[in-house]
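Backbone geometry:

***
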Amino acid sequence: MFRVAPSMILALALAPASSPGAEEAEHPLYASWAKSPAGTVVVVREVTEGREAGGPRLVVTKRRVLRSIDDRRAVVEETVEAETPEGTSRTGPRESVIRRTFPLPPGVDRSRLGRPQQFEARGEERVEAAGRTFRAEWFDTKGQTEAGPSRIRAWYADDVPGLLVKSVTRVPDAGKTTTATVVAIESP
């Protein structure tokens, strides 16, 4: 799935199609992809490195293609390629259907959709990605992994399909840092 606000985006994507009496909201991922024509490609590269120089490194490249979009839904296909010291593996393609609207969960701030609902700090700055400079809003959040607590700084821009421009996730107990960056945006 797409990394916008790790827990929020998953909840939005898995929200039921309709819920009696629930207020409807436009899905932020749909809105971000709707600004692009079908055939648009977004490539995100995630690099995970250990604390020690020369240690194992994992590079995951996610290629997302907007296959179709209409006034009800967007269909995004994702192919993932992982490069490890043991070799390269590929999965996909896998399609994700993003409905235009969804029932707004109780307690969710509509004005914060597509961004973390809870955060420790936030700000705005320009960030480099895909050979361009984006005006982005960043958030510092905490998370939890199998290896222990994580600290995340993520940058979001409304003019990037999928919203996430860059994120840096640190897991101190594992001595690992994962940096995800949009490396290409191509329109047909």
About this structure: The radius of gyration is 17 Å. The first helix runs from residue 6 to 14. The domain at 36-97+118-186 is CATH 2.40.360.20 (YmcC-like fold).
